[in-house]
């Protein structure tokens, strides 16, 4: 029988070329993990729907409930501030009740808020409804990315973790469609249906989530190793990956590797005690870097002006030359469709292209679009006649702005911030990120009218372009690539800069001490 060793395969003892070696096959998409991420991320529809529907509903609300421009700014953006209460409480709630039941809780709260808004008879009543809805939104925003990141295998984590942003965009589109659909009804009925019908998605979400398993990482934190293993077996690409993921989670939770009991006791440290001290008061260089990256990406996502475009689309299109309600609502629907299409494109690129290239390309496109939109709106504002090219430039750059946002900045913010924190810090760390996101969003959305009254609407977008330029520099300098890394490997990617600073500081201290000793001897 002929010798089939590698040395003799090609004759003459030549080694097999690299092209002849079997190529590794990419694992198929895990359908069970896909279904879990899909159901969990549906909670994000709640925020998206509220943003989209308020942009058009406010036109008709103001015709029945009289309010000033300042009150309009508050009613549009206050939900983001109210959601802080929900996101602040969601970290501890999710560690106590579990990720799954926290999602159900979020849906139930938003259901009540949507009903209250739909039946509002005055400004104070409407504010009360937005308060309740905001708490539900805060819960949903924090817990959906955390659950998805903890269930997803490393090969598809970017794809699955982008689902919350996909559903935010889908919710925005539903809100825009609802605006247009109910705009033909009498004013006092149409806007109530626009707001009140938002209760229906909350019901379906709460029911659907009950079919999901609990997060394997939360199960390990509770000492339920047997349950965690069963979930990991179904959400991993292979049996080997399941074993490795369980071993990494056990190590992060402080459980000995040789422990194979179905139920074990877990120390208080791994269940959340002392988290805030380790996260904020005495962080390691890696944790400090992670926290800065999470806070920074959430801040820049909102401060670059996306909520001004999405919430005040009808106002922007009015300044761009569209005067009728129908034209403005149709234009905002185009914004919704554009955002939804490009966020779907982004979900398929995240695990192929990587986080950094998409993020940097997205921000660069937003800078160019913001500058072009500022030029178009400035020309329209200063011209006494309707300039077709300026109208076309303004509308097209609004669409390009949301397209570039959706291809990178939108989904990567949630993917990146949910995957970089160590297990013991993840719930509270993500809660801080969401809090920064909501505060920044609230400031931007509650000041847009005042801002463009002060520096013109074109000037407002020049300002947003400047913020996006700063974001590009920060992302390029501080943000490492996380594609393909397991959640337990993330901590090793961060902290190099801060370790260098700590070493330099220690060197300076030693040098100063030596100089003082020499002075003393003299």
How would you describe this structure to a colleague?
This protein has about 525 residues and is mostly helical. The model is unreliable at about 1-25 (pLDDT under 50). α2 (about 45-65) packs parallel to α7 (about 165-180), α14 crosses α23 (about 495-520) and α17 (about 325-355) crosses α19. The chain has a single domain (about 30-495), classed as MFS general substrate transporter like domains (Growth Hormone, Chain: A, Up-down Bundle). It has 23 helices and no strands. It has helices at about 30-40, 45-65, 70-95, 100-120, 125-150, 155-160, 165-180, 185-195, 200-210, 215-220, 225-235, 240-250, 275-280, 285-305, 305-310, 315-320, 325-355, 355-380, 390-420, 425-445, 450-455, 455-480, 495-520.
